[in-house]
Amino acid sequence: MSFDRLKISKKRVFSGIQPSGNLHIGNFVGVLKQWVASQEEKDNIFCIVDLHAITVPQDPKELKGKIRELAGLYVAAGIDFQKSIIFVQSHIPAHTELAWILNCYTPIGWMLKMTQFKEKSENKESVSTGLLDYPALMAADILLYDTDEVPVGEDQKQHVELARNIAQRFNNIYGPTFKLPEAVVPKVGARIMGLDDPTVKMSKSNFKLGHAVHLLDSPEQIRAAFARATTDSLTEIRFDQSRPGLYNLLEIYEIFSGLTRPEIESKFADKNYSQLKEELAEVVIAGLKPLQDKYHQLMGDPGTLEKILAEGAEKARQIAEPKLREVKNKIGLG
Ligand code: ATP
Ligand code: LTN
Fold it and tell me: What's the predicted TM-score (pTM) here?
């Protein structure tokens, strides 16, 4: 068996993305690239968190398609299912069961403080209890697998800290049960901003034209999105955080080109914004091409993906179920 569960010296990594909306370059640089880079030295588990997606309304047919699409994108981005576990959250009932238990050890005030809940519930007529409770399910995801590290974008740090607090509280009552996880946020690219509005995070659930570059966008769509990106009325091209539109474009360029900041600044010293946007589009198109090719190849062969997900669920179950049993025993259930 190429998957070696006995290498306990490796750090356990768990992370997930919701199968809602279209994956964008923020998700790619903020998390997917990190996941792929850590495959050799870490023991990775990557989840398609479909139960989190239903905290806001979803069309059933579309959701089903999005789950497969996201699994395909994980593999196309370079996650090797022989080295890492890839699985769908709802295939393992232990996640919802532990989430319920953790709920009962989490003060409601902790949930009400979460920035994501405040943002997502703002100005909504009706908000599901699931949206408020979302971090308990995320804590269950993480704690079921004795996770050491959780690679996420900046916006999810608070949820990982909450998972840690819940774990600590449970351990204080019942003795050592859960490992205390840590969020790992990339130095560059942890928060790619919207191209239409560089004051908001690029987001899968923002469907405004020109807001994001999606991983499966055509070269024409990518060129058009960058061409209309919001900048400012100045001319000098340099990394300056007080000019958020330009800074965001340069940060994307930095990640996709692999050049250093001084190299980039000197490259664009005599160029204007539209030249930067054109070159940026080309570097992103080239950077996404291998992923897109692999994705289309994989989706043409549906059996392979089903097999990857079935194997992944089996491996995940072998870790999650004993942990859940341990928790239930400690609290007097079962
Ligand atoms: P939504 O807006 O629907 O909540 P999202 O774009 O935030 O979606 P998620 O599924 O919530 O995407 O996030 C997947 C992962 O990508 C998370 O770890 C998150 O922190 C990271 N991420 C999301 N947006 C960005 C971004 N703009 N820059 C860097 N990382 C990001
Ligand atoms: N809340 C995360 C997705 C998510 C997750 C997790 C990330 C659900 N469970 C466990 C890391 C670990 C998000 O919205 N990006």
Answer: 0.91
Using alpha carbons, select from 180, 160, 157 the residue that is nearest to residue 168.
Answer: 180
- Residues with a CB atom less than 6 Å from ligand 2: 14-18, 49, 52, 138, 141-142, 150, 152, 156, 159
Residue of 12, 13, 14, 15 to test ligand 2 pocket, by largest number of atoms within 8 Å of CB: 15
d(Cα 32, Cα 52) in Å, to the nearest integer? 18
Indicate which residue's Cα is closest to atom 11 of ligand 2: 15
**How far, in Å, is the centroid of ligand 2 from the Cα of 328?**
24
107: β partners: none
What does the alpha-carbon distance between residue 326 and residue 7 come to, in Å, rounded to a whole number?
22
What is d(CA 183, CA 32) in angstroms, rounded to the nearest whole number?
15
Catalytic: 328?
no
Which residue, among 45, 102, 71, has the nearest Cα to 318 in the 3D structure?
A: 45
E strand segments, 162-247: 182-184
Distance CA 189, CA 28 (A): 9
**How far apart are alpha carbons 151 and 12 in whole angstroms?**
11
Q: Which pLDDT tens digits describe the chain residue by residue (334 residues)?
A: 444 555 457 999 999 999 998 999 999 988 898 899 999 999 999 999 999 999 999 999 999 999 999 999 999 999 999 999 999 999 999 999 999 999 999 999 999 999 999 999 998 888 999 999 999 999 999 999 999 999 998 899 999 999 999 999 999 999 999 999 999 998 878 899 999 999 999 999 898 999 999 999 999 999 999 999 999 999 999 999 999 999 999 999 999 999 999 999 999 999 999 999 999 999 999 999 999 999 999 999 989 999 999 999 999 999 999 999 999 999 999 7
197, 110, 121, 201: which is closest to 154 by C-alpha? 201
Dist CA 150 CA 158 (whole Å): 12
Q: How far is the CA of 74 from the centre of ligand 2 (A)?
A: 15
* Cα distances (angstroms) measured from residue 312 to each of 92, 138, 194: 10, 19, 33
